[in-house]
Design goal:
25% of the residues lie in helices and 28% in strands. With 260 residues, it is an alpha/beta fold. It has a single domain, classed as Ribonuclease Z/Hydroxyacylglutathione hydrolase-like (Metallo-beta-lactamase, Chain A, 4-Layer Sandwich), CATH 3.60.15.10. The strands form two sheets. It has a seven-stranded mixed sheet with strand order 6-5-4-3-2-1-14. Helix 6 packs parallel to helix 7. The termini are close together. Bound molecules: zinc ion (ZN). The site of zinc ion has 7 residues, from helix 2.
Length: 260
């Protein structure tokens, strides 16, 4: 059976006009896994599913609690709470901070809605089995706990960095993957980008560093994503193509690519 990846959003930090923040839908052998649900991703996910209550989602994986990766998980919570009552909880794989984000957006008097809508499993963790996949996760450096994701099934391996700086674990995460989705924030590509207190350029990748990871790991295809708003994405791609000589994809909202 065919496998596909749909891009729900490609921006880092906040969404550009007409775009959304990080999110992907992976479909493999009829099993549907959502990877991250940042700002503005849920309408595109619902369009892909043909359901505005999230029918057909088999699992959700969220790499870290930053809202550009996690805030629309709360919109999914509301869709399930108000529109999907009686449905079984959706398996959710995420660091505990993601649950803290959901709780912060809820009225404490309403109780633990997240605990009823989602069946939570912590990340990073030892292996999980989800549908046809073995889910492996690794702690990667970012301001908050971030879980790099590796999904292995017969005939398909996909790796996803979430947000990260350079780290030796990336080579293992992406080893021989059919597709590596790598953040390429390219945080300071624009000379006008203001410095923000606490900024650390070593906690994000850019095109060159993402390509170095892909080359070292021997991945078959590299998809760059998590572009800083306003960046010249083609420039990021050129920097990557100078190092990675395999097929290079740029995440683009609504794009659906065939994985096999
Ligand atoms: Zn991010």
């Amino acid at each position: 059976m065919a496998s596909h990846l749909t891009v729900l959003g490609s921006c880092g930090a906040w969404p550009e006009a007409g775009r959304s923040c990080s999110g992907f839908l992976l479909e493999h052998d009829g099993f549907r896994v959502v990877l991250d649900l940042g700002y503005g991703t849920l309408p595109r996910l619902f369009a892909a599913l043909g359901s505005s209550v999230g029918a057909g989602i088999d699992a959700v994986i969220v790499t870290h609690r930053h809202p550009d990766h996690a805030v629309d998980l709360h919109a999914l919570l509301r869709a399930r709470w108000y529109g999907g009552r009686g449905e079984p909880p959706i398996p959710l794989y995420a660091p505990s901070g993601v649950l803290d984000l959901l709780a912060a957006l809820e009225d404490p008097d309403d109780g633990d809605r997240a605990g009823q809508v989602f069946d939570w499993h912590p990340l990073p963790s030892s292996d999980y089995r989800i549908g046809p996949f073995r889910l492996l996760s690794m702690a990667l450096p970012h301001w908050v706990p971030n879980a790099g994701i590796r999904l292995e099934a017969a005939g398909l391996t996909l790796a996803y960095t979430g947000d990260t700086g350079v780290d030796p674990a990336l080579a293992e995460l992406a080893l021989d993957a059919d597709l590596l989705i790598a953040e390429a924030s390219d945080r300071y590509q624009q000379s006008t980008t203001p410095q923000v207190p606490g900024d650390d350029p070593n906690l994000h990748l850019d095109g060159r560093r993402a390509a170095e990871v892909a080359s070292a790991a021997g991945v078959k295809r590299l998809m760059l994503s998590h572009f800083w708003p306003g960046n010249d994405r083609a420039a990021t791609a050129r920097a990557a193509a100078a190092i990675f000589d395999g097929p290079l994809l740029l995440a683009d909202e609504g794009e659906r690519i065939t994985l096999r």
